[in-house]
Write a structure and sequence with these properties.
The complex is a heterodimer of chains A (264) and B (345). With 264 residues, chain A is mainly α. Chain A has a domain of 184 residues. Chain A contains ten helices and one strand, in the order βαααααααααα. The longest helix of chain A is centred in the N-terminal third of the chain and has 32 residues. Chain A is elongated, with a radius of gyration of 20 Å. In chain B, a hairpin with a 2-residue loop joins β10 and β11. In chain B, strands 7-8-9-4-10-11 form a six-stranded mixed sheet, with helices on both faces. Chain B folds into two domains: 257 residues, 3-Layer(aba) Sandwich (Rossmann fold); 69 residues, 2-Layer Sandwich (Alpha-Beta Plaits). By secondary structure, chain B is α/β, with parallel strands linked by helices. The chains are: A mainly alpha (264), B alpha/beta (345). At the A-B interface, β1, α1 and α4 of A face β1, α2 and α3 of B. The site of adenosine-5'-triphosphate (ATP) has 12 residues of chain B, from α1.
Chain lengths: 264, 345
């Protein structure tokens, strides 16, 4: 055996990207083997759209049909964020398996196993987005923005969910068990999704809550989606959402990778 | 390994020193878990192209040592170099030089054998067709072709083990770590793994393997380190080790347990060694340093009317090795040479 191989002190950018895609491919293969991993992104949007529309619709908008343009973006956001919590939980479970030991001994970029898992999960967010819009359409939701704008809104949601999933990936890396990831994440998820403009107009809340709901980045995301789907507008809310997504990735991706390396 | 397309991003590319004849060198390696020192100052030197066996009982610190050498655990003290590269400071370089088969299977349960190998190969920089080719080749080599497409959940322990070994060989690394590669395997699978290890060594790979079986270390390893409670208590070739522990032992079963004490006295006189007698089994066991004296012993027993129903010679077992080596607390490794004294106090 010749020892004349060329050794490198780190991976190149191109190798890092290729390795992340390989890890994403692994994630997709797992979906194919365990289709039950896709239950939450198909059942939850269906159930929530039906429930919220018929329970709150009359009280908030007079009838269900007029509530749909408000609630569809809300349910969409909630479903996708819940799915991104599952990303962190599954990452924790995955990391406890022996195969992660092998990934750690391979000369690959440390971010690749994390980035790949998160990239594969954008497929789940896409399914959730499609299901929500289709169920809404079946219930009479007719977005004024047209198909192109709806698609763009969907894309925005998926990009933001990918960004947010880095937060839960970080919890996944630092937590001891998958259940504790679930626990911490839900504690954050509930206030963040309900203290927003997702389900009810913010001006019906007490003043101090209004302040929080208006500052909540998720409110901006939902507003951006509503503007796009209901009137085909791309405005400040769109830009704010993308900016928030970028900040989250820049903050949590390095944190998650660093903690992942420390555990190794 | 493919060369990078962006040489500018590589801080410094080096050639592994092919003249480097030390594959592994550790100095005072320490790992502490809470107040427990799992590895307590281990010094090892493994020459390139050899098989080095690390022998030790449960909890001795074998896995912890291997995990530190394989960059999976950070040492709390001391240092370790792989072909001259520090396992902490140059972990990325070290990872290009090693293949690891851990004690517990490190393959993906939900995927098939083929998918597993293709993914590892892609991560190592193989192109898609090259990854497929390499995976198929390894599956053939390890007799896993028929099961290649089935999820590993349905694999037997031996098949999983072989796949794990195959996965460590994708990049043909110059150094392979095998942590208890044959524990839990049936004799046929064990023989297959042994053959693979021998083939690797013929091709020039350096192998560090841990085991609980003296026999396995004996069969495969050029040098053996015995570790216990995180320390090296003996090191040498298999022959040196066995000689230091004492020799084979002679087992006799007596027809009449009443003869026990008398037989012991005869053994003491003829072999000049002390026999232990267990009346339940009517069994007399004694170390034998000079097998040519056995005939004398049998004759002497016959003359004294001690009847024997069974007779066998046994090589030292690992139990005996450990008993001999760890018989007293914290044996310094220098005492190994005279640990014959343990056998004949
Ligand atoms: N992650 C850990 N946390 C705490 N203690 C640990 C950890 N890993 C190992 N130990 C302890 O360190 C000691 C050495 O363990 P190690 O797994 O290295 O032994 P071993 O020689 O590989 O044993 P075996 O033959 O059972 O595989 C044991 O006492 C074990 O309980
Ligand atoms: Mg072990």
């Amino acid at each position: 055996m010749s020892l004349s191989m060329t050794l490198h002190h780190r991976t190149s950018l191109r190798q890092t990207v290729q390795q992340s895609f390989t890890m994403a491919y692994r994630g997709l293969l797992k979906f194919r083997r365990n289709p039950e991993q896709l239950f939450d992104v198909t059942l939850q949007p269906t159930l929530f759209t039906l429930m919220f529309t018929y329970i709150f619709g009359g009280a908030i908008s007079g009838d269900a049909e007029h509530y749909l343009p408000i609630i569809i973006p809300g349910v969409l956001m909630q479903t996708v964020i819940t799915a991104s919590v599952a990303t962190g939980v599954q990452l924790r479970e995955d990391m406890d398996k022996g195969v992660f030991d092998r990934f750690r001994t391979l000369p690959i970029a440390r971010i690749a196993p994390l980035a790949g898992a998160l990239m594969a999960d954008t497929v789940r967010y896409t399914i959730a987005t499609l299901v929500t819009f289709v169920v809404g359409y079946a219930m009479g939701y007719r977005p004024q923005g047209g198909l192109g704008d709806v698609a763009l809104a969907g894309l925005l949601v998926i990009v933001c969910a990918f960004a947010i999933s880095w937060i839960f990936a970080f919890f996944g890396v630092i937590a001891r068990t998958a259940t504790s990831v679930q626990g911490i994440s839900m504690l954050i998820l509930f206030p963040l999704t309900f203290l927003s403009n997702a389900f009810v107009p913010v001006n019906t809340m007490p003043k101090w809550l209004q302040w929080f709901a208006n500052a909540n980045p998720l409110s901006h995301l939902i507003s951006a989606v509503r503007e796009l789907t209901n009137s085909g507008q791309i405005g400040d809310e769109f830009a704010i959402s993308l900016f928030a997504a970028a900040v989250i990735i820049l903050l949590f991706a390095p944190l998650a990778v660093r903690m992942y390396m420390r555990k190794a | 390994m493919s060369a990078t397309a962006y040489p500018g991003l590589v801080t410094s590319a080096r050639r592994a020193p092919s003249h480097n004849d030390v594959a592994i060198q550790t100095q005072g390696l320490v790992k502490q878990f809470g107040s427990h020192r799992a590895v307590d100052g281990i010094d090892l030197t493994v020459q390139t192209g050899t098989v080095f066996g690390v022998l030790g009982p449960n909890g001795a610190g074998k896995t912890t040592t291997v995990r530190m050498l394989a960059t999976l655990l950070r040492p709390d003290g001391g240092r370790a170099r792989i072909f001259g590269h520090d396992v902490v400071k140059e972990e990325h370089v070290v990872r290009q030089l090693i293949g690891v088969t851990g004690q517990y299977a490190s393959v993906d349960e939900t995927l098939s054998a083929l998918e597993n190998l293709i993914i590892f190969a892609r991560l190592l920089g193989f192109s898609r067709p090259a990854a497929k080719r390499k995976a198929t080749e390894l599956l053939e080599q390890f007799g896993l072709v028929e099961a290649a497409k089935r999820p590993l959940k349905h694999f037997s322990g031996g098949m999983r083990r072989r796949l794990d070994l195959a996965a460590s060989l994708i990049a043909t690394p110059p150094l392979i770590f095998l942590d208890e590669p044959t524990t839990g395997l049936d004799p046929r699978s064990r023989a297959q793994v042994w053959d693979t290890i021998r083939r690797l060594v013929r091709e020039g790979t350096t192998v560090l393997l841990t085991t609980q079986y003296l026999d396995e270390a004996d069969q495969l390893a050029d040098r053996i380190a015995v570790i216990d409670r995180g320390r090296v208590i003996a090191e040498g070739t298999a022959d040196e080790l066995k000689a230091s522990v004492g020799q084979s032992s002679l087992h006799l079963r007596l027809a009449d347990p009443e003869d026990g004490a008398r037989a012991q006295a005869i053994v003491a006189r003829v072999l000049r060694s002390e026999a232990t007698f267990s009346p339940e089994g009517k069994r007399l066991v004694m170390p034998v340093s000079d097998p040519s004296r056995i005939a004398d012993l049998l004759v002497a027993l016959k003359e004294n009317d001690v009847d024997i129903v069974e007779f066998s010679m046994q090589k030292p077992t690992l139990d005996e090795v450990f008993l001999a080596l760890t018989g007293h607390e914290a044996t310094p490794s220098s005492e190994v040479e005279d640990s014959k004294g343990v056998e004949q106090p």
